């Protein structure tokens, strides 16, 4: 067994797919693994580091474009954003079936590899969909709207087009504190991903992060408005915490303005 160890990025996973496929060792004799996932090393297995290459990633993308479909690419990309350590090998196993069956592979959920990739992509899109509803922005000095999130999956690239479309003339930042990176949208310009932690050494950039992410801005006022609204429309006799947690899971509340510094 040869284990190809790749980075967590989408392009690196595609490079791993290329190396494993082109090794000609047989699909049953190769496996992909994400670097740093702390999986137990297999006895007698050979480990090979995947070298990132735009050329290799480009070849896999071109093959997907010409032989598969946009829906297949959408699911593969979403699955690569999952937090699960086995996502790289899941992408590889799926593409084996995809190049065998063509665009219709997405209908073959009876195939284990197809279902596994569908499961990963569905979880990523579900979390992204929830966050489009639960994200809250606070305005900080400098006329910047800032939001913190802590998602399980790496969903910034899925969230950003949604908010860029709805707030095209606003300066906004969505900071993923689990991965210490942010989606940054200057007013009337394209958004981009900034891999910059607010901790550690960073000079002026860190000072900017500290200002954006810790400034109070209008947050306190909106917290009070939300809580006042919540209690005004609530009916005590119909209070159902279990139902509330079903529609608004607890993991999202720590980042929502109306649930800060007080109970709902």
Describe, in plain words, how this protein is organized in 3D:
The chain has 264 residues and is of the alpha/beta class. The chain contains ten helices and eight strands. Strands 4-5-6-7-8 form a five-stranded mixed beta sheet. Strands 2-1-3 form a three-stranded parallel beta sheet. α1 (10-22) crosses α2 (54-67) and α4 crosses α5 (112-134). The radius of gyration is 22 Å and the shape is elongated. Residues 200-207 have low confidence and may be disordered.
Summarize the structure.
This protein has 264 residues and is of the alpha/beta class. The chain is built from ten helices and eight strands. The chain is 47% helix and 14% strand.
What secondary-structure arrangement, pairings included, does this model have?
Layout (H helix, E strand, L loop, with lengths): L1 E5 L3 H13 L7 E5 L11 E4 L4 H14 L2 H11 L6 H15 L10 H23 L3 E3 L3 E6 L6 H11 L4 E6 L4 E5 L6 E3 L8 H12 L4 H15 L7 H7 L2 H4 L11
Helix pairs in contact: 1-2, 1-4, 3-4, 3-5, 4-5, 5-6
The unreliable regions are 200-207
End-to-end C-alpha gap: 53 Å
Strand element count: 8
Helix content: 40-55%
Which sequence of strands runs across the widest sheet? 4-5-6-7-8
The number of distinct helices, counting runs of at least 4 residues, comes to 10
On the 0 to 100 scale, the average pLDDT is: 85
Order of helices and strands: EHEEHHHHEEHEEEHHHH
The helix-and-strand class reads: alpha/beta
Determine the strand fraction and express it as a percent band: 5-15%
Taken from the alpha-carbon principal axes, the silhouette is elongated
Main sheet summary: 5 strands, mixed
Radius of gyration: 22 Å
């Amino acid at each position: 067994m040869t284990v190809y160890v790749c980075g967590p990025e989408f392009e690196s996973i595609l490079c791993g797919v290329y190396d494993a496929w082109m090794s000609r060792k047989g699909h049953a004799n190769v496996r992909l693994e994400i670097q740093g996932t702390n999986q137990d090393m297999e006895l007698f297995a050979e480990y090979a580091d995947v070298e990132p290459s735009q050329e290799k990633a480009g070849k896999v993308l071109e093959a997907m474009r010409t032989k598969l479909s946009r829906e297949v690419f959408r699911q593969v990309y979403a699955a690569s954003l999952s937090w699960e350590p086995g996502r790289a090998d899941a992408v590889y196993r799926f593409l084996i079936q995809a190049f065998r069956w063509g665009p219709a592979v997405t209908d073959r959920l009876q195939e284990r590899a197809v279902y596994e990739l569908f499961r990963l992509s569905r979880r990523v899109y579900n979390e992204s969909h929830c966050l489009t509803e639960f994200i809250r922005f606070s305005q900080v000095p400098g006329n910047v709207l800032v939001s913190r999130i802590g998602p399980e999956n790496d969903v910034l690239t899925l969230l950003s087009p949604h908010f860029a479309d709805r707030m095209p003339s606003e300066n906004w930042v969505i900071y993923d504190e689990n991965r210490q990176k942010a989606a940054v949208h200057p007013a009337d310009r394209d958004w981009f991903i900034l891999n910059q932690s607010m901790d550690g050494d960073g000079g002026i950039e860190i000072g900017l992060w500290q200002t954006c992410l810790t400034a109070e801005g209008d947050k306190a006022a909106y917290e009070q408005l939300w809580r006042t609204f919540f209690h005004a429309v609530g009916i005590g006799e119909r209070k159902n915490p279990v139902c509330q947690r079903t529609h608004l899971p607890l993991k999202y509340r720590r980042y929502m303005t109306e649930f800060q510094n007080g109970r709902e």
